[in-house]
């Protein structure tokens, strides 16, 4: 029996590679002679670098960046084994995880650090980039990233505007004459799993601003400032980004990557499964196992289990999802190719208890083993 194990991470608990290996351990207890292919997967958010570095025989690079609050800190990105492709998680440099809950302020947080990761990769000779833009702490339209790459965002006195979405109100014109010339020879693919436009009731500020510390008044200000930014981009670059699907991703980072770096915005799971050659591996498999931290009705919007299941469905392969928990209307995933789904939780517990890595790993092993045992019993009955 050939089994492909292609899970996402259990956020804040287990990495995708930990999950894949633990599922294999559980299944091997019942099917020790099965052929297992482990493919940790991500959708552009947390875990993307780890999954891609694993798949591309690459390595991690650590460097110093400017964090969302303007302080110096360390961050990482991945490089493929042939040093041709850099894999960057925006969250590593400009993510919510870098900002304490009581300091989250979408008006001042900057994406400058993400630009510094790109710059560092350029210095190392990389010319192909895959950038995951999930989990950002920013609402600056990617302005900080652009400034780190040499773009001048100028106010009425000819000076660079400050950091954050609040400062976009001061923007008068854009000067790209000193933008790093190496960027013109680069290829950017952006793992973007939302279709929100830059502005409006479904835009970056209204939908994602609250989780970044924006009040109702802040949302209005930030949305107006992104409208203003789009207006100046159209004025100086002759590109209209305001209503393009995906430009509202990551506080407007999608708009900056599209307008200034000619990036292609694509579903993260699509980019990653292509690089992993998942289609070929699934076609040859007898069973596919996937998973994520929580499976619910929102999972159909570009999450890993649905992306994996879509490939399996094309080849008429059964898919089992082993997940941290099952949420509201999880049954909506069945028509998308999920054959069966299981939560690893064994008892009522707090969120902290559920996320404990040791406990989660134990529960995952037991769940995988029991699922494998059930499959074996079923084959004997049949």
UniProtKB/TrEMBL annotation:
Entry's Gene Ontology molecular function annotations: kinase activity
Record's keyword terms, sorted: Kinase, Transferase
Keyword Transferase: yes
Family stated for the protein in its record: Belongs to the glycerate kinase type-1 family.
Name of the molecule in the record: Glycerate kinase
Organism: Orbus sasakiae
């Amino acid at each position: 029996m050939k089994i492909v194990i292609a899970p996402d991470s259990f956020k804040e608990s287990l990495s995708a590679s930990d999950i894949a290996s633990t599922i294999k351990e559980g299944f091997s207890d019942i099917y020790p002679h099965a052929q297992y292919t482990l493919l940790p997967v991500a959708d552009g958010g947390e875990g993307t670098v780890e999954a891609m570095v694993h798949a591309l025989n690459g390595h991690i690079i650590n460097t110093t960046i400017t964090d969302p609050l303007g302080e110096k800190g360390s961050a990482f990105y991945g490089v493929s084994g042939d040093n041709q492709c850099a894999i960057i998680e925006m969250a590593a440099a400009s993510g919510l995880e870098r900002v304490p809950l009581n300091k989250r302020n979408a008006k001042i947080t900057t994406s400058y650090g993400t630009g510094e990761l790109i710059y560092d990769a350029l210095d190392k000779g990389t010319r192909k980039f895959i950038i995951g833009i999930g989990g950002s702490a920013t609402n600056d339209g990617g302005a900080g990233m652009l400034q780190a790459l040499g773009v001048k965002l100028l106010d009425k006195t000819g000076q660079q505007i400050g950091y954050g979405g609040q400062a976009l109100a001061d923007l008068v014109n854009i000067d790209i004459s000193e933008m790093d010339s190496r960027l013109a020879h680069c290829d950017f693919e952006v793992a973007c799993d939302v279709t929100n436009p830059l502005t409006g009731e479904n835009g970056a500020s209204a939908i994602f601003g609250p989780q970044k510390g924006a009040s109702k008044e802040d949302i209005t200000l930030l949305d107006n400032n992104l409208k203003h930014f789009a207006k100046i981009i159209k004025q100086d670059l002759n590109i209209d980004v305001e209503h393009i699907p995906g430009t509202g991703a990551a506080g407007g980072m999608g708009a900056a990557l599209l307008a200034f770096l000619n990036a292609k915005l694509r579903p993260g799971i699509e980019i990653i499964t292509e690089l992993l050659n998942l289609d070929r591996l699934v076609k040859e498999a007898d069973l596919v196992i996937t998973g994520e931290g929580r499976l619910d009705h929102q999972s159909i919007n570009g999450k890993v289990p649905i992306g994996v299941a879509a490939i399996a469905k094309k080849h008429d392969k059964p898919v089992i999802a082993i997940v941290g928990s099952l949420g509201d209307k999880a049954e909506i995933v069945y028509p998308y190719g999920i054959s069966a789904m299981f939560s690893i939780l064994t008892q009522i517990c707090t969120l902290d208890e559920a996320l404990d890595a040791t406990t989660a790993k134990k529960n995952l092993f037991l769940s995988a083993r029991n699922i494998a045992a059930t499959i074996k019993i079923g084959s004997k009955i049949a």
